[in-house]
Amino acid sequence: MKKKLLLLSFFAAAATFTASAQDAPKADPPLVIFGSVDTYYKNDFSGFKSQTGSSNIGTSFASDQNSISIGMIDLGLKKKVGKAAFVGEMSFGPRGQAQSIPNGSSGDSYHIQNLYVSYDLSDKFTVTGGYMATFVGYEVISPVGNFNYSTSYLFTNGPFQNAGLKGTYTFSDKASLMVGVFNDGWNAYSSTKDVSTLGAQLFVSPAKGWTAYINLVSGKFSGTEIDLTTAYQITDAFKLGLNAADFNAPNGPGGFTGVALYPQIAASSTVSFGLRGEYFKWKDTGAGTSSVKAFTLTSNIKAGPLTIIPEVRLDSWKDEVFVDSNMLPTKKASQFVLAAVYSF
Amino acid sequence: MAYLYYMKKLFFSIVCILLINTARAQKDVLQFDEDNKYVYYQVVDKKGFSADTLYNRGLVFMKSQGLKGDGDAKAGIITAKPKLVLYANSLVSKKEAGEVSYILNVETKDQKYRYKFAGFVFKPYKINRYGSMATQPGVEIPLEKLWTKYSAKETDALLDQVGAFCKTTAARLLQQMDKVPVLRSEDAVKKVATDKW
């Protein structure tokens, strides 16, 4: 028995040291599974609940009034071997389905966030093709990518996704240029008529911690949007982001213009606060214009992969587009959201 | 009573295994320099070898590892500033946690050389809109300060990977400087006669 125990110890030790030889990181990462889950509660302070269950402020997601509701479960797979890579990301739930991606005309209901392949033609030039999150704008569909849980008017009215073929040339870690051709319509798996939207993105990093993206998406079918998205991590604790965009609708007047500022401060390694101040204006289509000022104060409280997001928001339109607690028209609306986002 | 005796022995064996496992922690191979920064450093005597020979072997090593080393032949110094991707293990998959930029310095003199891995800075990844992991501009954590942003378990896991990498890379460097040929076992192709049965 004694000998057996000694042998057991010896083999266990040998196995331990053998395992340690495998510790060094490998060049090609394995197949990666990633994603997120999000859920929320919202209360519009007017108490107004429409027939569809939503409330006054109509930007994307966090829509259900006085309800504990779900966002989406987002599941992605990705792999890179040598120079070739793919990403496939699917979502289920209101945020990833009806609220962002329309179902197909034939009733099909698959909900792709990203589905593309890419190939590094050289160290500096990469070609990517498929259905991708849009390159335009500051905010994204996935709650993991946003600081605020509710979204801006600029995000809601801009593209969510574009299908196309793009090439990205990286001049250095301070500058790159993307140019691509995309389907005529935004947020659709296939084109309506053709592949006639031009997309371009110039990235520059003027200083350490400062990134700026100048984006253009233009086509006869969907219109033209020019967008500036920039963020500057000024200190370890303070970050300032800015999004400005101008959109001209296709075939006639109309469109929007707006700007949003995102100051964020980290109070500790787990708690941070951020404000989004936005001005958004609809362009004149002959029936006048309208504009809104929206302020959103958000906190991110992190507990490992879980982020708790309490948020207060106040929107003030130029016109009386909201209703108050007496169901009378009003220019202002405010809401509270408590969300939880788990990322893996 | 005999049962109890063997239980004690078993317990002792398990403790030994745990101790071995603890000793295995690769973060322990990292040292602190005089500025309290993590380094992986060694001076190696190479009697009978000139600085030039060692310098050239150092350059060959850099090339063999795909590192862009800036060489100063006069001073006998080769410097590379590469980066290393670190991974976070979860229950079902392994994904990139971030990258560590570092400075690898090889300095040669007659009869000896030294190498130093230093300047470790961790840049955590965050998933971007395209489902790719990317650094967050301006977010950089010196390796010594990892504990201020991550739990002890996460910090240890990241440091272990850096330690293991330094140890492995240094072993390759030593091998190159010694010019020990890499032995590859060549398994004989097994052939079978299918026409005779």
TrEMBL record, chain A:
InterPro entries: BBP2, Porin_dom_sf. Transmembrane segments: none annotated. This is Porin. The keyword DNA-binding does not apply. The keyword Lipid biosynthesis does not apply. It comes from the Bacteria. Residues 1-21 form the signal peptide. Keywords: Signal.
